[in-house]
């Protein structure tokens, strides 16, 4: 079973929105045999947050050190890192780090980004093995990847 780390910006989005995205992706990808890793792990206590932000320090699971180390560990465990940056209007430093770690650890890295997106940057494009402009194209590719087509 291949492990896939799903990266996505959190800042400015509600917990419900981010959790719904991960739930949908998990449902799609587990049926193709992927084990899902994501940075929302162990953060259910944020479920009432309307606008997530960097800098939560009142819980052991979300200190800067805990977030940094856990996300880095998850990226290292993954076979594939998929960063969906399609709807982003602000740069997430966390996602940039996750892509850099993925590149350093030689993970198969997939990026979804629009041409006019704030993430359309040479470093991020170069860090990715593949770049798509639609989430559905990524899912189709990941499905085919597990089926050897």
Write a structural description.
- There is one protein chain.
- With 149 residues, the chain is α/β, with parallel strands linked by helices.
- It has one domain (2-147): 3-Layer(aba) Sandwich (Rossmann fold).
- Helix content is 41%, strand content 15%.
- The protein has five helices and five strands.
- Strands 2-1-3-4-5 form a five-stranded parallel β-sheet, with helices on both faces.
- Helix 1 (15-30) links the parallel strand 1 (2-7) and strand 2.
- The longest helix is centred in the N-terminal third of the chain and has 16 residues, at 15-30.
- The protein is globular, with a radius of gyration of 15 Å.
- The mean pLDDT is 89.
Share of helical residues? 40-55%
Shape: globular
Q: H/E order of the elements?
A: EHEHEHEHEH
| Strand order of the biggest β-sheet | 2-1-3-4-5
Largest sheet: 5 strands, parallel
Question: Cα-atom Rg, whole angstroms?
Answer: 15 Å
CATH architecture: 3-Layer(aba) Sandwich
As for the number of domains, it is 1
- Indicate the low-confidence ranges by residue numbers: none
What's the CATH class label? Alpha Beta
Task: Label this structure with key terms.
149 residues, alpha/beta, Rossmann fold, 5 helices
Topology:
Blueprint: E1 2-7, H1 15-30, E2 34-37, H2 64-77, E3 80-84, H3 93-104, E4 108-112, H4 122-127, E5 130-132, H5 135-147
């Amino acid at each position: 079973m291949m492990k896939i780390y799903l990266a996505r910006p959190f800042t400015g989005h509600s917990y419900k929105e981010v959790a719904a995205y991960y739930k949908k992706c998990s449902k799609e990808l587990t049926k193709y045999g992927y084990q899902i890793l994501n940075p929302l792990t162990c953060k259910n206590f944020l479920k009432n947050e309307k606008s997530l932000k960097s800098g939560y320090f009142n819980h052991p699971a979300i200190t800067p050190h805990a977030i940094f180390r856990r996300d880095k560990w998850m990226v290292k465990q993954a076979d594939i890192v998929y960063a969906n940056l399609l709807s982003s209007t602000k740069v997430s430093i966390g996602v940039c780090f996750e892509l850099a770690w993925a590149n350093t650890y030689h993970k198969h890295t997939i990026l979804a980004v629009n041409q006019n997106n704030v993430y359309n940057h040479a470093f991020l494009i170069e860090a990715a093995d593949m770049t798509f402009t639609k989430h559905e194209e990524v899912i189709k590719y990941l499905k085919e990847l597990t089926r050897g087509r």
